[in-house]
Structure formats: C-alpha cells, structure tokens
C-alpha cells in the first residue's frame, strides 16, 4: 500500500463521507480507525489491520481535517460526468424544489447530500448560455455527484445549510410568537399539543446538522 504524505478535501469523494456517516459506534478506537481508513483510502480492512499500529495511527491522523467543517462558499459551477451545472439562485427556487429540499434535509443532510445538490445545481440551457434549465429530478446527476470530490461541493453544502438553519430559526421564532399569543385562550390539552409542536420544530433543527 502507498499512502500520501498529506490529504485534503480533494482526496475524498462524497460517497466516502456518506459511508463514514453511517458507521456504527465502535467498541474500540482501533476498530473505528480501521473502518475509516479502509473507506478513505479505498483499501481492504484486512490490509489496514496488517499495518503496524504506529503507522496506522500516523495515517489516521492525516485525516483529522474531516472532523472540521470547511468554510461556507457558494461554488457557482461544477462539472459532473463531463456536464456543467450552475448553482440556482436560492431566492428563485420553484415550489417543487423547495418541497424536495425540505424532504431531503429533514431526513439528513449528509445522507441525502447528493439529492440536495441535485436540486441546487441545474444544467445550463446550452453551452453558451448562463441560464439554467427548469428543475426536474435528475437521478443521473444524483448518482454522479456521489463521485465528486468534496472540495468542489462541500463548501456549497455548508453554505446552503447555514441558509436553511437561518430560515428554520426565523420560521420557528415567528411561529412560536404567534402561538404564545394564543396560549391564554388554550385549553390544557391544546397547551400539551403546543408543547409537542415546539419539540418537533426543535428536533427538525437538530436533525438538519451537517457535522
């Protein structure tokens, strides 16, 4: 096995970070290192286990940066399987885009990152145009995005997450203000339902985490 002297986000493809995100809790840090290194280096776990402990720890430490979140940045253009795609104007997203985005976000941003990005990036109308085609679900793009390196898409995903979080916070505050005005007129059962609604809103925010 040959390892690099250092790694960065350009060394990780989206599907790899998604695989790491689905790993269970491990009984030992050694088991965790073996599985993560296997995914990140596309190496059989058996070969990782054969490494001297010192070398394994050294290689694992080169990937420390994945525990940090990259700076948010809206990357305006990406290329997937030879096709160029442009980032949509968030203020101009269609209803169908917003509906799909809400579904994907609520089910996990990392898990559905390829689906979210396939809503945010649309193909150009033609090679000379800066205008984007209308949105429609694109399974081919979804699958292609899984193999794109994170340096090209992760900053946009973080940027999008911050916008979503701001929107949800604003929506929650607005809704709670209205509900608080109604509390004096509520029955005991209605207050109970109000409490459950607030919990669901907070869970939605917590579930939207990217790190």
Which percent band covers the strand fraction?
Answer: 5-15%
Low-confidence stretches: none
Between the first and last Cα atoms, what is the distance in angstroms?
30 Å
Order of helices and strands: HHHHEEHHEHHH
Question: Care to describe what's here?
Answer:
There is one protein chain. The protein is 54% helix and 6% strand. Helix 1 (14-21) packs antiparallel against helix 2, helix 5 runs antiparallel to helix 6 (113-120) and helix 8 packs antiparallel against helix 9 (188-207). It folds into two domains: 9-67, no CATH class; 77-207, no CATH class. The protein has helices at 14-21, 29-40, 45-49, 53-61, 95-106, 113-120, 139-145, 150-182, 188-207, and strands spanning 77-80, 83-87, 121-123. The model has no long low-confidence stretch (mean pLDDT 84). The protein has 211 residues and is mostly helical. A hairpin with a 2-residue loop joins strand 1 and strand 2. A three-stranded antiparallel sheet has the order 1-2-3. The protein is built from nine helices and three strands.
């Amino acid at each position: 096995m040959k390892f690099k002297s250092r790694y960065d986000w350009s060394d990780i493809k989206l599907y790899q970070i998604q695989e790491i995100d689905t790993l269970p809790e491990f009984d030992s840090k050694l088991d965790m290192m073996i599985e993560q290194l296997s995914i990140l280096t596309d190496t059989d776990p058996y070969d990782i286990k054969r490494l001297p402990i010192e070398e394994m720890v050294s290689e694992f430490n080169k990937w420390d940066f994945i525990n940090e979140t990259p700076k948010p940045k809206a990357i305006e253009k990406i290329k997937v399987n030879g096709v160029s795609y442009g980032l949509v104007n968030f203020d101009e997203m269609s209803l169908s885009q917003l509906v799909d985005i809400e579904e994907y976000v609520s089910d996990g941003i990392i898990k559905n990152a390829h689906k979210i990005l396939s809503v945010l990036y649309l193909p150009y109308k033609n090679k000379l145009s800066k205008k984007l085609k209308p949105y429609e679900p694109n399974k081919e793009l979804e699958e292609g995005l899984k193999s794109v390196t994170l340096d090209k898409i992760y900053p946009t995903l973080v940027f999008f997450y911050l916008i979503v979080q701001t929107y949800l916070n604003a929506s929650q505050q607005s809704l709670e203000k209205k509900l608080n005005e109604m509390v004096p007129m509520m029955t005991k059962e209605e207050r109970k339902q109000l409490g459950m609604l607030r919990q669901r809103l907070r869970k939605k925010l917590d579930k939207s985490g990217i790190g």
